[in-house]
Give the backbone structure.
Amino acid sequence: MTEPTIERRELLPALFDSPDEALFISGLAGAAKDTAAFTDDGANLFTMAGTMGAAVPMGLGVALNAPDRDVVVVTGDGELLMGIGSLITVASMAPANLSIVCIDNLQHGETGGQTGHTSRATDLEAIAKGSGLPSTMTISNPDQMKDGAAFLKTASGPRFLLARVLPTAPSVYKRNFDPAECRVRFRDAFLGA
Amino acid sequence: MTQQSVDDDWSATLFRQMLDAGVDLFAYVPDAGNKRLIEHVDASNETRSVLLTTEEEGIAVCAGADLVGKRAVLCMQSSGVGNCVNYLSLVNGGRFPLLMVVSMRGDFGEQNPWQYPMGQAVEPIFETMGVLTFKVDEPEDLEKTAAAAISAAMKGSQSAALVLSQKFLGAKAF
């Protein structure tokens, strides 16, 4: 595979027109930092700082129960691999309003940059396809980000976009780490809407 | 024809209680103990099931449902409780309400030695992770114990496990 050249901090702003257009669930570490920076830690976002692997199934729970909203899970390669079976559960339920964006930096950035499985033999898009997700795509250079944005808008859901990125630092953003506060914030914003 | 008693079809009773409590999504890993409950779920047009690949997914699915104001339940065999431990951090730390239905292995009358270690660890794990246990041993206890677990989760915002023992379910023969 070609070496990725996407700068991860530029990814989410390039994929979405507005941080308000979807409900966002993000997995821990870099994915949470990038998503919090993109949405300014908005009330339409629930980020994790633990429970590695939980982002996709939590996004599934949201998507199945909020069918009129677009739901986006932002995860990393390590986080996704820890709950990889959840792609199969998503495919079985097939919520059309769910998109999964995996920021694949080929390493465990949060814990010291140890090499990850995706830098060796593993192709997450092939796993997503094999799990039964109807629409999958891989991007790895900045020119493809607009194609990724179009894919997220138009492809049949649930969608899986694998963004292979440079192993550079995620966004710098100090988000709310209290999951109880974030839960109430999200519910109030959604249910009050 | 005799009238069907609760223990003849406790799954129907439990399903009705869940439905009355506003639960419309049942995440599950298949088990003999929840087979009929999920059949009721799939037969109803008011509810749906989510077949999981592993039990901890269900914790996150239920939490996601709560984020948008819906009520879900996680149904699993006791073996799956061990898979859920870390994800109970999300529930405990985030104060998410959670309702689980756990069908036991490795307790009363178990013949398979593989089942004992996890089965015996279920209640200590729940206690450690802040989950309230509501255990059913006798058929006549099912309805009121289920009501207590449902109230704890859905009204009291607790994480609660309705634990169906093998004394209640019957032990599998080997």
The first strand of chain A starts at residue 23 and ends at 26. Chain A has a mean pLDDT of 97.
